[in-house]
Each structure stands twice: as C-alpha cells, then as structure tokens.
Specification:
Elements: H1 3-21, H2 26-33, H3 37-44, H4 52-61, H5 67-70, E1 93-94, E2 101-106, E3 114-121, E4 130-132, E5 136-143, E6 146-150, E7 153-157, E8 162-166, E9 171-175, E10 181-188, E11 205-207
Antiparallel strand pairs: 1-2, 2-3, 3-10, 4-11, 5-8, 5-10, 6-7, 6-9
C-alpha cells in the first residue's frame, strides 16, 4: 500500500470511527453532508479520494473539524494558562487529490478561542468550495501570491500582505500564478473559548463554487 492509499484509508477509518461512535448510519451522514451513500461508503473504505470541500462537509456533519479526519486526535493536557505546541507534533497533513497541506500551529481548546494554521496552497490551485461561519480571521501571506475571494470581491495579496475578514462572508483562497504559496491563518470563533475556530469548523456552511463573484482585484 503506497502513501496515498495509506492516507485515504486513514481518513476513511477516521470517518467511520466518528460516525459509528455517534450511532449514525451512512444514510444519516449522507443526509447531513449532502453527499451520496455510495460515495461515502467508498471514502470510508479508502477507495475514493475526497476534495477539501467534501471533507469539510463530512467533518461538519460529524460535529467536528477537518483536523479530526486528517490528523491524530489532540492529547488532553492540564490548563496552566498557556499551551506550547512543538514543531515535532505539528506535521503537515495533506488532502489527497488536492495538493493542499495543513500544519496546525496552535489548536483551540479550553480557554483558547484563537487557532493558527499554516496553509500551503499548490501552484494554480483553486478551492472547490466557499465557506461562511461565525467569527473572524486574519491571513498573512508568508510566501508567494494569493487570490482571496471574499463575498463578491477578489483581492490579490503579495508576500507580506495580510487580510482581516469577517468569516460569515463566503470566502476561499488559492495560489495565484504558477508558484505555490504559504499562508499563516489565524482564526477566532464567535462562540468563544473551546469552540472550533477555523474556516472548516463545525457550523461552517458550504457554498457552491458557482456562487456569483464579480472579480475586482486591487
């Protein structure tokens, strides 16, 4: 079994484990996620690749975040008023068939309403879904050029630029041009400490990629 097959199987196992622990059938998950039973069955068996948007929809339907499906569960630790996240425990997590990679920098939890994630966008890649959810976020471009779509506006950011946006406005991002890009994404959830606070969080609303967006680049 190659690395891609192993990754698909790990994601499928995570979906099945979370579904069965919640006593949900594949039909229940299909109804909540808007995806077909046959597709979800193949994903759980590691026989089908899923887009980022579909994984977000599945995670949302299961009452969690995409981190629950693509990475190991967080280890509980005493609350000392601060938390340290070691680089050795923040390995990049890829989404098969998309080229997107996510590296947790600081995850949410008790007393922490802000999360940070390093997002690596492939060259000429585009997200297949836009999302809207409570809260706000700041994205700082570490490397490359990034095209952010927020509502009906498209904004091009260069290295060193940042965008601060209301997360309830449908949004997405992708690398602009022929080179990949890296973004530090810091998100805050309106519900406060303890909630998922990133743009794939519980309660996110997936929007059609065909939703109107009259591009207006700065």
């Amino acid at each position: 079994m190659n690395l891609i097959d192993q990754s698909l199987q790990r994601i499928g196992d995570a979906i099945r484990d979370r579904r069965t622990s919640r006593r949900m059938t594949l039909g229940d998950l299909a109804e909540r996620s808007g995806l077909s039973v046959s597709f979800l069955s193949r994903v759980e068996r590691g026989q089908a690749q899923s887009s980022v948007g579909n994984l977000i929809r599945i995670a949302d339907a299961l009452g969690g975040s995409i981190h629950d499906l693509i990475g190991p569960p967080d280890t509980a630790a005493p609350d000392h008023g601060f938390a340290v996240f070691r680089s050795a425990g923040s390995m990049p997590r890829s989404i098969p068939a998309t080229g997107y990679r996510w590296t947790p920098v600081s995850t949410g939890g008790p007393g922490r309403a802000i999360e940070a994630t390093l997002l690596e966008l492939p060259a000429a890649g585009t997200a297949d879904t836009r999302f809207a959810h409570p809260g706000e976020e700041i994205c700082f471009v570490l490397e490359g050029r990034v095209r952010f779509v927020v509502g009906e506006r498209t904004t091009l950011l260069e290295t060193g630029d940042a965008i601060h946006l209301r997360s309830d406005i449908p949004h997405t991002a992708g690398a602009a041009g022929d080179a990949p890009a890296r973004v530090l994404m810091m998100t805050h959830h309106a519900s406060g400490p303890g909630g998922h606070s990133d743009w794939w969080n519980q309660g996110a609303t997936a929007l059609s990629p065909d939703a109107p967006a009259r591009d207006k680049e700065r």
